[in-house]
Predict the structure.
Amino acid sequence: MEHEKGSDLRDLLIVLPGCEKLDMCFSCGTCVSRCPIQQKIEPAYNPRRLLKMIALNMQQESFTSITPYLCSACDLCYSACPQEIHISAVLNGVKKLAMQAGFSTPLKTARVDALTCVGCGFCEKVCPYQAITVKETNVPLRGKNLLIAEVDGAKCMACGTCSSICRSNSIELQDRENSEEVVQDLWSWLETVEMGAEK
């Protein structure tokens, strides 16, 4: 789905909830300095650079950037931003517009095996990103419509919470084999968020 010709990325974003102050960014870099993602997980993650690309109407570059997909919405940047820009909302808006335009996440996300999923809904309840819904799906090899978990790639952060609670082992992370690594990443992130909240 292509956006109307002549519609600036900024114009598409500014009307979305949480993006109202987008124009107030003066590239101070506070968001980047407070973010645990860039420091601990991915050096290429840079919200400030993405906000500049939005201002320059670099739609293609914004939609293919890894930055919107890595944001965990911890909002450490939001509480520190002198302009009170809700950066996670802006990044989520970019991700939403990218998906509408036919782009997909560059991240490896959780994947559900429809043949073994029992549709219990535990994964949906524990997902911190509301990336999973359980809905009736036609499963040809099982011969009928069944309740099956479905992962929204636009929201999934591959944190591993769903796969760790799945009692039928029907959810796996495409690129994360070691569950100890997943748990360690989660603890590191929680410690970082907790330290940020104490400041």
About this structure: Residues 1-6 have pLDDT under 50 and may be disordered. The radius of gyration is 18 Å. The chain has two domains: 9-100, 110-174.
